[in-house]
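[Q] Does anyone have a clean structure-token version of this?
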Amino acid sequence: MARRTFFSFHYQPDVWRAWNVRNSWVVQNEKESEGFFDGSVFESKKRESDDALKRFLTDGLKNTSVTCVLTGSATASRRWVRYEIARSVLKGNGLLTVDIHGVKDEDGKTSAKGSDPLASMGLYLLDEKIYLAENNAGKWVKYSDYSLAIPAGQIWLPKPTSNAVVPLSKHCLRYDYSAEDGRKNLGSWIESAAKAAGR
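[A] Here you go.
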């Protein structure tokens, strides 16, 4: 079953890699993706305001059931990748990380492996309410771009049981596109993430 998938990535260094990965998947069996934005559109929304960009990214996730975080060397620390992950959690999308550092860029170069963006975002319980957290410089803090409590029934992830942050990566799988034959296997990875989320 084809899944409508949102691909999240760090635009400037990884767009070539991300485009190739996404296209290798989309062309198989007429699969579809959403939210693969042209850089100029993204930059224009960012110039308008943070709120305009948040609305734009949230709209980009509509009609998707899975968010695939295409990860390069610095993806985990990017504010707007984290926002896309947060909105994916709120929407109930399946989540997975796919490392793309081994995919060659337009100059034929690979990159260094980065940390897992889903390990930099997590959930915790406070006063019987669930909140998002992010890791900044090795310390967990309340996620500032969405600080409201999340209704337990709104997310598929297991409910945290204390104020100790549970990274999203604990419940989501990570793959290496180059080392694990992503051209052949990306579809099954996406399907597994969808099923884990009950989608």
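[Q] Thanks! Anything notable?
[A] The two ends are 11 Å apart (CA to CA).
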